[in-house]
Amino acid sequence: MKTETSSFRLEKEMFTEFKKHAKKQNITVNSLINKIMKDYVEWGAQIPSINSIPISASLIGLFLKSHNEEEIRKVAKEHAEIHMVENLLMIKNEESIEAFLSGVQNWCKSAGFPLSIRDKNDSINYTLMHKQGTKFSILVEETIKTSIEILTKEKARVKHTTNVVSFWI
C-alpha cells in the first residue's frame, strides 16, 4: 500500500483531545487518523446516499415494542427486498455477498456492536451483539436472512437470541 505525507492545521484543543483518544485506544495518532479517514470514505460519506439517519436505540425499541414478531419480520423482509441491492450499489458500487458482509461490518462498527467473525467447518460465522432485545434481534435476523438469500440464491442460516444475531456464509 502506497502512502502519502500531508500536513493539516487543527485547533490545538481538538488535537489535544484527539491524541487522548489515540492513547486510550493504544494506537498512534497516525493510525487513528488513517482509521477515521478509511471509515469515512468506506461508510460515513456514503450514508446520505442511502437515506440513512441516526436514530436513538430507545426510539427503535419503542417502535418494536408496539409490533409483534410477524409484523417485524414482514417489514424487515420488505425493506431488504426493496432497498438492500440499491444500497449496496450506492455504497459499494456492486451487488455481491462480499459487499454485503463489508456493509455489515461497517454498520456494526458505527453502531458500536461487537462483531465476531470465525472461520469454521468450511463456513464463516458472523456473530453480532447489540443489547437491544429480542425484537431488535428479530428485525436484524430477518433483514440479514433476506439479504443473504437475495444475494446467494440459497437458503440462509441465521439465528438469534435476546441480544445476539448469528449467521453463516
Characterise this structure.
The protein is α+β, with helices and mostly antiparallel strands and 169 residues long. Helix content is 57%, strand content 13%. It has helices spanning 12-24, 29-44, 57-65, 69-92, 97-111, 134-152; strands at residues 115-120, 123-129, 157-160, 164-168. A four-stranded antiparallel sheet has the order 1-2-4-3. It is globular and about 55 Å long.
Percentage beta strand: 5-15%
The number of helical runs is 6
**Gap between N and C termini:** 29 Å
**Overall mean pLDDT:** 90
What would you report as the Rg, rounded to the nearest angstrom? 18 Å
Spatial order of the strands forming the largest sheet? 1-2-4-3
Keywords:
169 residues, alpha+beta, 4-stranded antiparallel sheet, 4 strands, globular
